[in-house]
């Protein structure tokens, strides 16, 4: 094996595995649909062994995994680490898996928790992406956005995650898209993004006081033939992203960092640009760089 | 027949019919599930004839119907009447059904439209409830709220509906309740309202910037065992109602008028009371009083 670290991004619906060099760059990467929901009870060691066997790891080989694999429904619970938190906190709260297959050293990255007004918030997997983004961009401060089913807005200061907030943006989009009255006039497939309709939706959501009100405009614009059916999914997507942006105090200065699938980060970049806010986009490399950087902070095995 | 007007409240999923005295009070009332979605194509005359036959109406008998029966999917479209609108506008825009069964005079009340920032809004059925509330309470001004699948906030000045806004509150509650990640920890049935959990949810939604964020608290509070499962439906309901209230400029002075099913208006009254805003609750009588008052403004038949 020519790598330094075996890194696993093990989420709810997918498992991606990479062999990394000492600097966190990727030697080889593969992935599949064996997310934690697809693993039978007691099946984690076998799925893990199969995922890494191509690299014939020696006993003691360091492996680090992030994501829902550390949740109560995962392999081994890595309890949430409270904010503010940096690399050192993540390293100290790694959940080591005893008796990992082949005698490797497998550590699971803890999720983070934060509290606002007595209400807790949690994330798991995004913390390592943010840490990777800090390393990739050589930054120690800023606002980091991880769009998705449950979007995360993460505030970093002096290299530590200070706090964050979750928005159920992707999930509410899917609910409105598929199960609400709006579904009646929407075409069956989303089609390519219509930038104009997307930005129109984003602007309406920001001008409106609440998504509960703004969302009904997708219905009435269709009713009055003021929005072609093909443009409606983009408009609805704009409503959701615009609502998420409406609720933020957007920073002046350094670009907002968007981390995630390109199809999503492109939309957020577009909506931010319309507000005059610059952004920087990152993809999967953030996870690998984060796990690689975390590995370098660990002491050698005893 | 001993009444003056046959009134029909004909919505999407139900049909209610009443025989009214000249002053708008009810002689007799009945109803069922024959909403417009349950009427086969071409079936409106027969359903209507059966609904009113018990009163053996003479030819020329005045009948007034409000609700979705006047929509494009209903019996006969009564095009939206633009705001501001009062009794006189509704009367002038009645859609008279030609050749109604038994030679009765059947008029369908138009819905209302309003426009805000270039985006249209519509309602159908609620306009007559608001008009009825004005008659019942002897008011000519105020804020009227009609909670439901699509809640309406209606502003009245000098006896006319000036404008209104729709909130998809009930529908989004049902989507989150049944189809979102929150459903995983919620009990199968809602159970009786837990006032404390409801008000806690309402307060959190008002303090939060967006329902997209506030809704996730139902997940995290459950995750941290900080909200018992039995209280979660009430908490979620509070989040939705609180979000709707957050987006309002609540009036000082005269009570907000809540019109609708008691189970809903009670919740809104509770959330408003927590904000120091008095409210007055009305039920089905608003529709009958509105149709009765509308009938009195009509000229005698030619």
From TrEMBL, chains A, B:
<dbReference type="InterPro" id="IPR042257">
    <property type="entry name" value="DGOK_C"/>
</dbReference>
<keyword id="KW-0808">Transferase</keyword>
<dbReference type="InterPro" id="IPR042258">
    <property type="entry name" value="DGOK_N"/>
</dbReference>
<dbReference type="GO" id="GO:0008671">
    <property type="term" value="F:2-dehydro-3-deoxygalactonokinase activity"/>
</dbReference>
<keyword id="KW-0418">Kinase</keyword>
<protein>
    <submittedName>
        <fullName>2-dehydro-3-deoxygalactonokinase</fullName>
    </submittedName>
</protein>
<dbReference type="InterPro" id="IPR007729">
    <property type="entry name" value="DGOK"/>
</dbReference>
<dbReference type="Pfam" id="PF05035">
    <property type="entry name" value="DGOK"/>
</dbReference>
<dbReference type="GO" id="GO:0034194">
    <property type="term" value="P:D-galactonate catabolic process"/>
</dbReference>
